[in-house]
Amino acid sequence: MSFIALVSLVVRDYDEAIAFYTGALGFELVEDTDRGNSSRWVVVRPPGGTGGTGLLLARAKDDTERASVGAQTGGRVGFFLHTDDFARDRARMSAAGVRFLEEPRYEPYGTVAVFEDLYGNKWDLLEPQ
User: Fold this and answer.
1) Which of 111, 56, 117 is nearest to 125 (CA)?
2) Cβ atoms of 10 and 60 closer than 8 Å
């Protein structure tokens, strides 16, 4: 095994999730395939991430799944987005409406700030040292 290919992220709506992840975060839409019965196979990933982990955007189908939207990691930071230019990407994301929950922190491992996706899931934007 060489890498984790996909991580499933439960979303309210395919199109609003695609718009956020491609527009605000700058991800690439890798696949959007109709599977019938209002189901789609939707994969996004950071640009150039052909060998890395992608997000499978899975639309919530019932009340249990809808209740997990935005809370899949119990309120903890659950996703870690690496960058090679923290200032550039933070500025671009902020201009696109991404809400950062803190000012940048300078830690021994790199520059980091927590932000929320459109559902309230917490992410770290991290430029490793």
Assistant:
1) 111
2) yes
